[in-house]
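Need tokens for this chain, all 230 residues.
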Amino acid sequence: MLVTGGTGGIGLAVCRRLLHDGAKIFTFSHDEVHVEKGRKALPEAIVGQGDQGRFEDVTRLVDEADQALGGLDAVVVNAGIGASSVTTMTTEAWNYSMSVNLLGPMHIASVVAPLIKAAGGGHMLFVGSMSSKTRGGGGDVYVAAKLGLHGFVDSFAKGVSNLNINACLIEPGLVLTDMTADSHPAQEEMIARGEMLVPGDIAEAVSFLLVQPPRVCIPLFQIRPRTQHI
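Here are the structure tokens for all 230 residues:
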């Protein structure tokens, strides 16, 4: 199974949960430091290096995963980066964020779907964000990518259903990650009050979705903290 961005945050929790479930995992990060941390944290997994925002890296990494695991029957497209507004970011910065958060998942889908079809079918899970619904001010670049991902997966899932592939978009609400640390310093209190999720909550959702039988399609799985009213 391929999990993108599995060396920290939600991705690391997903890898740990799926390894516990008995899956063979190939994951990657764009940063050498995170790759080394991932190899130490996930000794049973294969951890490569590459950038989800670079098409040539995606193609290479998918091929490496396919070869190392002897085929692919599932992918969790999780890697993502934060972004703010076109009014505060450089053109290069917001273009890159779109490459990672939207175009990268689309490219992964294009190269992984034929492999999963060849394996007889399986699951393709994409981790988005409920920002696609809340659309808060000052985050228009991030919102655009996640709203675009929502539309892409909705259509993509219908198109690959006849290939015995179940595609699902997971949209978490507020989650404790490095991305939310600066803007929400009182995280432990927020978790206790039911205002914030932990990465393991998303990992549990991924584990649940991956064991659904082929006849079951869950195209959208939204998960939010109990008291985060969206």
